[in-house]
Amino acid sequence: MPYPNDRKYTKEHEWIKVDGSSASVGITDYAQDSLGDIVFVDLPKPGADITAGKAFGTVESVKAVSDLYAPASGTVAEVNGELATAPEKINQEANNTWMIKITLKNPAELSGLLSAADYEKFVSEEGGH
Amino acid sequence: MPAVEASTPTIRKTALNAVHRQMGAKMVEFNGWDMPVEYPSSGGIITEHNAVRTGVGIFDVSHMGDIRLSGPEALAAVQHISMNDAARLAVGQAQYSALLYPEGTFVDDVIVHRLGDDGYLLVINAGTREKDFDWVRDNTRGFKCRAEHLSDDFTQIAIQGPRAVDLLQKLTDANLAAVKFYWITHGTVCGLKNILIARTGYTGEDGFEIYIPSDDGTSVRVWNEILGAGKEFGAVPCGLGARNTLRLEAKLPLYEHEISDTINVWEAGLDRFCKMEKAEFIGKAALQKAKAEGLARTLVGIEMVERGIARDSYRVLDEAGAAIGYVTSGSPAPFLKKNIALAYMPPNFAEVGSTVKVEIRGQGVKAQVVPTPFYKRPKKV
Predict the structure, then answer these.
(1) Nearest residue to B254 (alpha-carbon basis) of B331, B366, B323
(2) Do both B305 and B221 map to the same domain?
(3) Nearest to B44 among A37, A42, A58 (CB)
């Protein structure tokens, strides 16, 4: 299952998985595949505020730099420090590799995001390549 | 033939386009061409890059262009339009050179191959094919020589890496051991007679480039035979992504990056390929003047010291944060496992060991000037 049902998705290819009042954020398998070898991740520090739809960091492959967009607003509670030295984990296991954990500001924002089925349909339409 | 060729917005494809797609390559547009950037089946850019450094990789480089100059005054014509000294070429020898504007800046960089007594082949870049041919034709009119644009006649395949010679030797009767680096020969390749085989490349490794007829059937057959013959050496198809990181590690210039119509030969550091002792060539007078005036900027290699990747066009800052230059090419270097870049900077910052900063998303990130090329292939023992 490339896109698990236990989370929501953005059209910018992030996923967000809620666990109580906190949520973990990563990028989708489609995103890691499009980027190719991921070599660098730039993430905010704990305590930083992020805003739904706005860039909160960047992910870089050998060829390209891509912004990461916040699926929801909140405060960064935790950053996955492992990615500073092993960003290739995202290529290996995009679904299980969270980048940041946030405390949600407004959980209702999530209702505007895509379900797994909708996201899969979205990428199959986008992925004409 | 129409007097004016209609400009076409259609993206161009090499004869191997369908093969790349069948193999699952990720395709990108490059200078108007639909080209493979990487092959997930090969393992992606990093794997492709390292295959070329340690084994062998295969590239479709048919987007490159070719111009043949032939006739009794072909040498004089080549001497007039290029900066290196083609008179030094023996039949069968090749040299790196460039076509210059009168300002001493670049029309394009080229490899000049001496095919015979009065015949030269110029291999040119994809994005400058038409411009280059027009330039060559217009500036060689006064010579008894004929300029032919042969870009569409060839499928050009590059076989690159320390095992390239072993791979290609399986497919040809030419004695490749006798062909030195930057020399050419002709031989039967995959049953095709009289194929041009050049010991050249754009990767910083040993390797060959072969020029075969561009019809789809022949091109696909030869590509597949090369991949088949390469299996025992771990050969993988490689895309433009690895081609770029390989040439960057080796500090080989890319048009519109390290060289362009606003950058001159001295700034680009290509002095050793520019022979000022030649009687005359386009750009010489301007270069004499530029040399006397001294350099305002020079191409240097930098390596990131702090976390961050310098990318094309990022600004270079001094330690106080003032802009002093810009990055022409920047990337992670897959074999060296460092983040490297080439940048134009004033000469007083160019000394090896100097500390500078690269502006990455508004932050000055520390980098250091290092010797180039970043990578040099080990000498054969």
Answers:
(1) B331
(2) no
(3) A37
Number of domains present in the structure of chain B: 2
B260 is a domain residue: no
- Residue B245 falls within a domain, yes or no? yes
pLDDT at B10: 86
Looking at the structure, tell me whether residues B58 and B166 fall in a common domain.
Answer: yes
B46 and A58 within 8 Å at the Cβ level: the answer is no
Q: Under CATH, which number does the domain A8-107 receive?
A: 2.40.50.100
C-beta separation of B33 from B237 below 8 A: no
Smallest Cβ distance to B45: which of A60, A62, A129? Answer: A62
What is the ipTM, given to two decimal places?
Answer: 0.90
Instruction: From chain A, pick out residues whose CB is under 8 angstroms from the CB of B45.
Output: 36-37, 61-63
pTM score:
0.95
Residue A129's pLDDT band (boundaries 50, 70, 90)? Answer: very low
Closest CB from B26, B308, B334 relative to A62 = B334
B325 and B223 inside one domain: no
Helix (H, G, I), strand (E, B) or coil at B293: helix
pLDDT (tens digit per residue) in B348-361: 999 999 999 999 99
What is the domain-level CATH number for residue B316?
2.40.30.110
Element (H, E) at B129: helix B129-139
Domain span at B303: 295-374
Confirm if A83 and A97 have CB atoms less than 8 A apart.
yes
Position B214 in a domain: yes
- Which residues from B are below 8 Å from A62, CB to CB? 44-46, 241, 245, 331-332, 334
Together in a domain, B38 and B167: yes
> Of the candidates B19, B53, B54, which has an alpha carbon nearest to the alpha carbon of residue B34?
B19
> A62 touching B, CB under 8 A?
yes
- Rounded CA gap, B133 and B145, in Å? 14
User: Does any domain span residue B181?
Assistant: yes
* Residue from the list B38, B307, B308 with its beta carbon closest to the beta carbon of A36: B38
CA distance A23 to chain B (A): 26
Domain boundary among B193, B224, B249: B249
- In terms of domains, do B243 and B317 share one? no
Interface test with A, best of B22, B34, B45, B244 (most A CBs within 10 A): B45
